[in-house]
Amino acid sequence: MDRIENLLEDYVKNAFKDIYSADFNDNISAYIQKTRKEFEGDLTINIFNFLKYSKETPDITANKIGGYLTENSNGVIGKFNVIKGFLNLTISNNYWEDYINDFVQNSINKSDNNNNNKKNKVVIEFSSPNTNKPLHLGHIRNNLLGDSVAKILEKAGNEVVKVNLVNDRGIHICKSMLAWKLWGNGETPITSALKGDFLVGKYYIKFDSEYKKQIKELQDQGMDIETAKKEASLIKEAQNMLKKWEEGDNDVRKLWEMMNSWVYEGFNKTYNSLGIEFDNIYKESETYLKGKELVELGLKQNKFYKRDDGAIAVDLSADGLDEKVLLRSDGTSVYITQDLGTAVARHNEYNPDQMIYVVGNEQDYHFQILKLILNKKLEFSWAEYIYHLSYGMVELPEGKMKSREGTVVDADDLIEEMIQTAKQKTLELGKTEGFTEEEAEKLYKQIGLSALKYYILKVDPKKKILFNPAESIDFNGNTGPFIQYTYARINSLLGKGRAAYSYLNDENTSSNVKWNNKVIITEENSSNINKERELIKLVYDYPKILQEAAKEHSPALIANFVYELAKTFNQFYHEFPILKAEENIRNSRLTISISVGHLIKECMGMLGIDVPAKM
RNA sequence: GGCCCCGUAGUUCAAUGGAUAGAACGGAAGUUUCCUAAACUUUAAAUACAGGUUCGAUUCCUGUCGGGGCUACCA
Fold it and tell me: Domains in chain A, ordered, with CATH?
């Protein structure tokens, strides 16, 4: 069905031509907005921008255009009013009714095959954990964001490849290895009854505290702090271990493999409970050599240079940046070395239209450099398509989380806590009557994770999140459980209304059942308080919201939308009888409910959130 | 020091340069013989400060104050 914005494109053009003999060549949709609730109308044209065509006052122009549109829009525009240069258009009920009927007939029961239009291929990297510590709340944001953006892009018609690049080597990994070797007494996840990633993390922290002690001792002996950091025997040992690792030393490699396997086991449990999956998991240990090769090649081509101390570096001063070391003087690689290599490898493997990296904004500088080196120094024009999805840090009331200092909100703990809280609240409300034990446990998990995921994803990715553990996460108001509850309500209505036509259950949506009810908007009054209209308008907004969310890489837009939808439905539910209305009205309202329920499920799905049939 | 980001109700979040700055939690007051009260209704409460651009600024520019990040042969 034609969208109003597209129709208006022509209508307005015609209006200016017929009334003012003016050649209208603005993009009208940029000046159309939703009419604010306190005014009558559905869409508003900001007429101020068009005075150059009319050469008349805003009020006169708006009135003339408004009058023309009501006469020449095939009945789409029912009436209009003008307030202070804003032309408020009321779209006819007919249009809305046709739209929602069309939506139910053609969108809901259709399987997701948006084939004919060519798809962009997007590779999105997220999670990218280090194998020296367990995942914490910051990683949760990263994982949820990456997973959700991937789903949004897919829904918006792109082909998406989710990849995880595990940072399983490097000096930081050697630190926990060394600490375990020195102080671990052979401890394993089994002997200690600790989850593998926690056990390794314990030694990462141990290293840091012992290292700090050494630095302090050296300082007490009169050494300055910078020298002390370099001279401490622990860091030297770790560096030596890294060198041995890169040389393939058997003992070091064996220790490394053992400890990493502990961590992977732990990570998999966490990914599982979050419902996160990848198409491809890369290990830095298997890709970092590509980076080294690339740097060597660049050196030969004089794009990089060797410093007197032996380190290989690149000069970025032409772009207002500093020199950047790409390979240490002992030949080992640094962080950016492997990122350069994997970017090239990934491009060669997938040849994507876009490469997205979901990484915190503390690494803005890193990605600026990465792109610059690839694009300008190595002359890979495709590097233009690298997009750093730079999200804000998750902070605690006392500041940033630091793994080394142990001031983190642990991912596993938080997830478990949310599930327990969900259980407690659900039992208080007596919502699990008639549930089997298994069903109830599933529900607690759905609700607890929903609260957590929605809480994280509703915030604009670019902004930092302040997480206060003491106040914890809500289950009422603008929350995941509220939206789930709305869905369950709708599901219950449909079950009672038309048990045979359970449109919202997966098993049944694929069937060829046709819903033949026509939606009728009741109560033709001042229209902008009619919840039926409001809901249909929200359903109408959805495709634009989805495109916008994909363009902005922002799950928050989906979250805000689905909340608005759920809230409006609850008002509708409260004010309008549905099952008790006379038959054609009842069926009409059930049809609206079907549409809303369908969209709630679809949106929540993009946020990685399950919706329960009953709660 | 240099570079970058951010300051919106008590708190956590909204608002392509547009109309009287929206929600939620918390506060105050209501709604269950009525389709699930994890709901609904009413109410008090905010753009850090000072300039500038504009018909119009929370949004753009400058400065001040406050917070955070980056500036490694850490990742």
Answer: 4-91 (3.30.1360.70), 169-277 (no CATH), 413-606 (1.10.730.10)
